[in-house]
Amino acid sequence: MTTTHGSAKWQGGIKDGKGAISTKSGALADYPYGFASRFEGKPGSNPEELIGAAHAACFTMALSLILGEAKLSAEHMETKADVTLEKVADGFAITAVHLTLSAKIPGADNAVFQELAGKAKAGCPISKLLNTKITLDASLQG
């Protein structure tokens, strides 16, 4: 269907080095990343927050499609994806992603909403890509 790209540059060692992330669309253009932004909370981006943004976007779009198939349309949906990076025996791994969704969907009852959100969690392409535990808290606003 489609192929796109992101890219990264790096110079220096792991702790003193500097990197820059770019996307084909230009949404990110040489945006800084490095050890300090990844592990020490310093300014800049990191791969995990980019995965979180991608997963939140993918899940929310997938849910929009599934809602449409059920003859429902969201007035508002907001998803946050918390991506957990942990030290494991052979280095580091993303050990979990927790999706938190808040949505206002006229005409939807909570049981149907939970079922459809679960389908979106399992079916979105980023969920399928990630080899980790994915959990979801979905709340329907009145």
From TrEMBL:
GO terms for MF: peroxidase activity
Gene3D superfamilies for this protein: 3.30.300.20
A GO biological-process term: response to oxidative stress
InterPro entries: KH_dom-like_a/b, OsmC/Ohr_fam, OsmC/Ohrsf, OsmC_Ohr_Peroxiredoxin, Peroxiredoxin_OsmC
Signal peptide: none
PANTHER family: OSMOTICALLY INDUCIBLE FAMILY PROTEIN
NCBIfam families: osmo_induc_OsmC
Protein name: Osmotically inducible protein OsmC
Organism field: Bradyrhizobium macuxiense
